[in-house]
Amino acid sequence: MGKGGSASGTTAVERLGPLAATIPLDAKDVTKRSIRESIPPHLFKRSYVKSLGHVALDLCWVAGTWVAALMALRVLPGFCAPLVWCAYWLYQGINCTALWVLAHECGHGGFTDSRLVNDIVGWLLHSSLLTPYFSWAITHAKHHHYTNHMTNGETWVPSTASPDKASVKFAKSAAGTWRRIVVVALLGWYTYLLTNATGAKQNAGQSHFSPSARALFKPKDANLVRASNLGMLLMGGVLAWCVSVWGASAVCFNYLVPQTVCDFFLCAITFMQHTHEAVPHFDAEKWTWLRGALSTIDRSMGPHVDWRLHHIVDSHVVHHIFSEMPFYGAKEATPYVRKHLGVYYKSHFGTAVGGSEFLGYWKDFYECMHKAVVVGPGEDGFLWFR
Question: Where in this chain does the record put each Fatty acid desaturase domain (predicted)?
Fold first, then answer.
């Protein structure tokens, strides 16, 4: 039996806690319009100065972190080098993720009022981070439209396999969980881009780099996919030139490792924003756009990292409802939306580990990867992790 109900008639909320609260199909007091009306109108306004200023600031963070690491390597004893490099890789990975988030804002139209400016900035940033800008923006829009939809969902759609299956049992073991994490960290992002892994089953094998991937793109999107591929090729050329000048190890240490950290952050953050054992998924009959959008979970990596990542982690509920809102508006709008949604607002701020919310986030990530593997139907008709 799924977690949606039990023989004793207990509700999902009683069994799993407040995250299981799901908006009724006939809800009249909470609609997209009512949520919008609960937010001060000025928070929807986009600013060229603020948005472009954040790009400039993020580029300064990238440059400053790189220079600081090089200086540390010069002045500290040689045995400190591994620690310096590890610190550089982690923090530069956060810096790269911050720039990636701004490019993601461009794809949504939440960066400025100009589509041309958005696309130029987004294409430049995403290409420099080895992401196909237009291609990913197109499929990401589908993710927003079909959040937690079992048939049409775009990312991290869970399996419906039996929990008694040997492969599922292994995946939920400690060894299986760590294997999943390592695969996601090293291969997850580009496996998704190349094969649409974790997306809807009917779209399996479809590539973000193929203009003819009909499950992902419409014929009119072909040139946008080609433009995305061009950006990737140009960045590949830049990296090849850098290798010829400074060597492969320098490019790997200074760019590729932080880039891999960024890719892992993207996969992990998306997973955590929409996955918790107490949050349901829906089949076509039970799904609505609002139910999907309100299945998004606000979390936290700690004040500094949340700020560095432009609050994509701790204001994601608002972002999913109003993706065209600038991120600085979404953060300010979150308290208004939380108050209006009441029990339907989802957040999970885990216990800090060693006083660190950042470490606590990754502890929660491990727990979710460990528990949230397959879903099955509950008595309420929703699909719950089991």
Answer: 84-347
